[in-house]
Amino acid sequence: MKAKIAVFETDATVARLSKAYVGALLTVLASTPVALIAYLLLCQDPALTFDSRAWHAAMAGVTLLEGLFVAYVAWCCYQSSRDPLLRWLALGLMGFTLIYLLHAGLSGLAPREPWLFLLYGPAARLSMAVLLLLGLLSHGRPADPVGRGLSPRLWLRWVALFGVLDLLLAGFAYTEWAGRVAVLVMEAAALLVSLINVAVLLRRRLRGPLMVVYGIAVAWFALASVAFMLALPWNHMWWLGQAIVLAGFFMLSYGVVDAFRTTRSFSITYSREELINTLSAATARSELAAQELQRINEKLEYQAVTDSLTGVGNRRQFLERVEAEVARTRRGGSTFSLLSLDIDYFKMINDTYGHVGGDNVLRGFVQKCLGAIRPYDWLARVGGEEFMVLLPQTGLQSARAIGERIRAEVESCLISTGQGKVTRITVSIGVAEFGAEGNTLDAILRVADQRLYRAKHHGRNCVVSA
Prior knowledge:
Layout: H1 2-30, H2 32-43, H3 53-81, H4 84-105, H5 114-118, H6 120-137, H7 152-173, H8 180-203, H9 209-230, H10 236-261, H11 272-305, H12 315-330, E1 337-343, H13 346-372, E2 378-381, E3 386-391, H14 396-412, E4 414-418, E5 421-424, E6 427-433, H15 441-457, E7 463-464
Parallel strand pairs: 6-7
Antiparallel strand pairs: 1-3, 1-6, 2-3, 4-5
């Protein structure tokens, strides 16, 4: 026992250490851009530049393609799951793409119209961060009902809204307020909203695997804004900011594609621990369902072979028992006998006390019979007031003695009919022995019934065995 406890304690310690290790790895991954930013800030000359329109167009093109791809997959996931988070995610990525498209397309005008070129980058990240925040706040809410969400008309409205923002930015770029301060303010706003995203994520303890990926991507978008705020156009820090944004999209694409391949939802996802707990709960429910099914089957099986009124076996079960006894006897076992019982004048009992009183008499009769037979004998109700008893390993004379005991027990007792009333009843009994009276099931049943009828004709309340 001590060894088992030690193993359990060791497993718990390893589990805690593993959890802490994974948390540390994720923290390092999320903060990797911090190290790169610090390196360029401390070890590189900010005046060094790499003024290449071709490289910028290539990187911006890859970023746009990533944004479009993730937006489309998020939209496909939303169509299946109606997850509100995916609705806002698709809108945010679409907005980023439509605004950032001008930043990429206007790179050739950067020398002549620098603010027209530079404003669209932070504006695209700011709009995306705002919509991602709205999506994060909707996480865990019920799925959107069919008929709501992103209908084609609503898509067009959002496209028109982003088009208006593009025009407003273009107009702002030619005003006296356009300049580095405006770019820094927009970058600071994008940084602030992204940090709010991360804070909400941590505050709500959203630790599902897809939400972890989502959080890392948003953290990288925030750090990209930090890099842009510290950078000058075309220097190494500025290029690092572009690379961090692209890396954030790659990270986000992993989460969205994983959602598409699994549950198509960011809300219905499971960590390994959650999955194990869910599977354990499902297994427990399955076991309970199997036990309940077994209980129901046993109940149905019992009802199929049991008389519901008296609780003894019915005709079907009795015949099965007798067939088994016939087979045992033919294999060399000792003989057996049958008793055929019929309550005398039972119709008169029903007429006098009603069917409820008759049912009470049947139940009382069964109890008297069970008290008079042996524990291994078998009593069954085979008709309205007709019963049979299987007497294993019993010859005719012993069977007759048991029949007499039943008859005397029934005759000597008062049986309740309900509502405080009692009555006396009697029973007629026919006895038959297998082998001596017949070698088949039908033969011995026929003999037992014939002797029961003979008992009726002899004045009832008697046992006939010949």
